[in-house]
Amino acid sequence: MIYTVTLNPSIDYVVYPDEPIQLGQLNRISKHHKYPGGKGINVSRILSELAIESTALGFVGGFTGDFLKQQLQDRAVSTAFVEVEEDTRINVKIKGESETEINGAGPHITPEKQAELVSKFRQLKQGDIVVLAGSKPSGLPGDFYQQLIRLITEKGASFIIDTTGDELMQSLEHQPFLIKPNRDELEELYETVIDSKEAVVQYGRDLLNKGARHVIVSMGKDGAMLFTHEGIYHGSAKPGRLVNSVGAGDSMVAGFTGTFEQTKDIKEAFRYSLACGSATAFSEDLAVKEDIEKVLQTITIKQWEE
Fold it and tell me: Is 78 among the domain residues?
């Protein structure tokens, strides 16, 4: 079973203004959408499009939490959230001449609610995969992800972590099944400028050597690179019009995780990862199955040669 963990989910309220936003003025929008948001939730939504079962975990509360749960139920995503008193946050995404985001802080999580979520991890078993993704709401200790990782590994399950900075680096000693930084995040991790695929290879290999079992580095229009202990691969999709950068990385995680669980074929998992990420980038919301299958036919993968 695949479990996704979104500690600070949201309702993503996406608005399309008629004119460029003017601060201090009345602004009108021509259309809007409301989506269940959060990195782990995005993974579960894409897995559902691929007809792969998962269970979404995390904290939800209030009327926004109810909306989020109903939206996921409508999309055939199973949930086992912990209910909290404060409302799930709302994130505003303004799709104007450039993309602007205004993100809420999220609810405060009490120690009692933390313990309730932790208790769910004691039911994990060998072969399960847990996707840990995104930011933490207030009230959670700084090492909360590390606490969950220790529980996951004690149960013989695998984990994927999609976060940045110290939390990502600290997870490597526990041998995550997959990490997926993008090029900007890789630069931040190593405090450097990465201006070539050769530089990506250098730092991707270092993440493997530090403990990651698989590493995917996404590079926007330049595709992505997969690092494994057996080889390094570069892959890309046929170029398309970038519509939505939100959720593309989460879609890549979903495509890789779900396909590998079903096939145990690394290259096929990478192929679906590229297709899911690109299809989302070419869509207003997360990709649907039909779009993923179309993009899948355009994917090319080559083994990296020095």
Answer: no
185: tokens are: 């995040």
pTM: 0.93
Q: Give the whole-angstrom CA distance, residue 69 versus residue 143.
A: 27
Q: At 232, which CATH number?
A: 3.40.1190.20
Cα separation, 242 vs 221, whole angstroms? 9
CB 273 within 8 A of CB 260: no
From residue 252, alpha-carbon distances to 48, 52, 181, 186, 247 in Å are 14, 14, 11, 16, 9
In a domain, 117, yes or no: no
Rounded distance between C-alpha atoms, residue 77 and residue 273, angstroms: 19
Burial classification of residue 108, based on how many CB atoms lie within 10 Å of its CB (0-12 exposed, 13-18 middle, 19 or more buried): middle
**Residue 60 corresponds to which tokens in the numbers above?**
């939800």
CB atoms inside a 10 Å sphere around CB 73: 12
Distance CA 40, CA 130 (A): 10
Q: What is the CA radius of gyration of the chain?
A: 19
Q: Are 142 and 114 in contact (CB under 8 A)?
A: no
With tokens 């997959």, the residue in question is: 178
pLDDT beneath 70: ranges in the chain: 306
Return d(Cα 3, Cα 130) in angstroms, integer. 5
pLDDT reported for residue 306: 67
Residues with a known catalytic role = 250
Best CA proximity match to 52, nearest among 254, 271, 278: 254
Output the CA angle 142-148-152, nearest 5 degrees: 155
Q: How many CB atoms lie within 10 A of CB 242?
A: 12
Domain that holds residue 182: 176-306
Angle, vertex CA 278, rays to CA 245 and CA 54, nearest 5:
90
